[in-house]
Design a protein that fits this description.
The protein has 474 residues and is mainly alpha-helical. The protein has two domains: 142 residues, Orthogonal Bundle (Preprotein translocase SecY subunit), CATH 1.10.3370.10; 216 residues, Preprotein translocase SecY subunit (Orthogonal Bundle). Helix 5 packs antiparallel against helix 6, helix 7 crosses helix 18 and helix 11 packs antiparallel against helix 17.
Length: 474
């Protein structure tokens, strides 16, 4: 037995179901259990935690599905990093794994678990020893590291459980759950801002309007309060935030449904063919995830450097960057500034333009890079389709013909889809939506994929009313 096989045998994993088909009720049950466990873990603080320098990094928390300062401070970061590294190694040909076979897939999944555990340990040490999560006086930093590692392993097992027994993957579920909770709190929370900053206030002071004069966090209640008090400016600000969130959701759903269909036929079965779909967002949300993670890491590095007295990347005042590179790579809330009269037109527009261009250009670069290295280019896809017996209708069976046809679609879709998702993410941030633009896009795409999977696999098991609702959307 090889060393890797020995490692695979000792890695903890969730045993899959014996039956090939799981009922919809079973999948829903386990998905809800995992979701509840995730939320509970998100409110358990790290024992012995002192200063939490990561608490204001909202963008990084959204991307990682993390709650900084709790035992899930690592979130899905190690799992995503391991997946990206392995896919890049396999797609570029550095790592020779044939994932078309059962043995190859099993080997790939085993390597992914090993990589995930490595990154769990590595990132836990980085967070603690670089000062992101500092131990309280009298506590060893290893107390925090061990808790972070335990939380990371639990997240890995919950992802495995969701993949085998639930709906979709745990990674997608945790991102969507975190962003949805953030949006719900930002829209409907009755608590005041003071309650968010302190847990020691009495209930009468925690609750905002209509119980006290303290403004609530939820923009819906802010809108009601502002209309009652006749504060048109505050009402417009709250309405603009809600409207921007709804608009981004609607546009994201619309582009998610856009696709190009390429007519293909089976060479050995005359007269039978299919229309193979290519989504407008060909690389899905990968480009905006990568560019957002890049920006989040710049902010993280800037904070850590500033805490050490080296403000090479810029400085912060509370949550907001005020100078340096991090200022120009941060999207200002233009609508809120316009309503409050705090906008300095030229500098603000210049900052917004730089941020939007960076998101769009970065998304395009990462999208092209991902297509070329992850096996989504025209040449690789044509080989895969030819291996299944498909060919272009009306042309002779030749891989070069299929590659030529696909190249007309794949690269334009790669660029245009990346431009669109980068633009949407930037506009959501600049308009002050209830969550980061990246988080909203991710959530819409994840929920849409959940909907497609449920409608495809479990439509006939549902209640007639729900069945009708799901069927109308197809």
């Amino acid at each position: 037995m090889s060393l890797t096989q020995k490692l695979f045998s000792i890695i903890p994993e969730v045993r899959g179901p014996q039956q090939k088909y799981l009922p919809f009720k079973t999948k829903i049950k386990w998905t809800l259990i995992i979701l509840l466990a995730y939320f509970i873990m998100g409110i358990i603080p790290l024992y012995g935690l002192g200063e939490n320098s990561l608490k204001n990094l909202d963008l990084l928390a959204v991307i990682l599905g993390a709650q900084f300062g709790t035992i899930i401070s690592l979130g899905i970061g190690p799992l995503v990093t391991a997946s990206i590294v392995l896919q890049l190694l396999a797609g570029s040909g550095i790592l020779k794994i044939d994932t078309s076979t059962e043995e190859g897939r099993s080997y790939f999944q085993g390597l992914q678990k090993i990589f995930s555990i490595f990154f769990v340990i590595f990132e836990a040490m980085i967070y603690v020893f670089l000062g992101g999560l500092s131990p309280a006086l009298g506590f060893s930093p290893w107390v925090l590291v061990i808790q972070l590692i335990a939380g990371g392993i639990l997240i890995m097992l919950m992802d495995d459980l969701c993949t085998k027994w639930g709906i979709g993957s745990g990674i997608s579920l945790f991102i969507a759950a975190g962003v949805s909770l953030q949006i719900f709190i930002g829209a409907f929370s009755p608590l005041s801002e003071a309650a968010a900053a302190s847990s020691n206030l009495p209930l009468s002071q925690k609750l905002g309007f209509p119980f006290t004069s303290q403004p609530p966090i939820g923009k819906f209640w802010v809108l009601i309060k502002s209309l009652i008090e006749g504060s048109i400016s505050s009402a417009l600000r709250a309405f603009a935030t809600i409207a921007a969130t709804i608009a981004v959701f609607a546009l994201a759903v619309y582009i998610q449904a856009m696709k190009v269909e390429v007519p293909l036929s089976f060479g050995k079965v005359r007269g039978y063919g299919i229309r193979w779909p290519l989504k407008f967002t060909y690389t899905s949300n990968i480009p905006v995830i990568l560019i957002a993670a890049f920006l989040a890491n710049i902010q993280l590095m800037a904070r850590l450097l500033e805490s050490k007295g080296h403000a090479w990347l810029g400085t912060f005042s509370g949550n907001a960057p005020v100078s340096g590179i991090v200022l120009w790579l941060n999207g200002p809330n233009i609508l809120d500034m316009l309503f409050t009269g705090a906008v300095n037109v030229l500098p603000t527009l210049a900052q917004a333009a730089v941020y939007a261009l960076f998101m769009i250009i970065g998304s395009v670069i990462f999208s092209i890079f991902w297509v070329q290295t992850s096996g989504m280019d025209a040449k690789t896809v044509s080989k895969q389709l030819m291996a299944t017996g498909l060919q272009v209708s009306g042309f002779r069976r030749d891989e070069r013909v299929l590659e030529s046809i696909l190249s007309r679609y794949i690269m334009p879709l790669t660029v245009m889809g990346a431009i669109t998702v980068g633009f949407l993410a930037a506009m959501a941030d600049l308009s002050g939506a209830l969550s980061r633009g990246t988080g909203i896009l991710l959530t819409v795409m994840i929920i849409y994929k959940f909907y497609e999977d449920i409608a495809q696999q479990h439509l006939m098991e549902m209640h007639p009313a729900l069945q009708k609702f799901m069927g109308e959307g197809k």
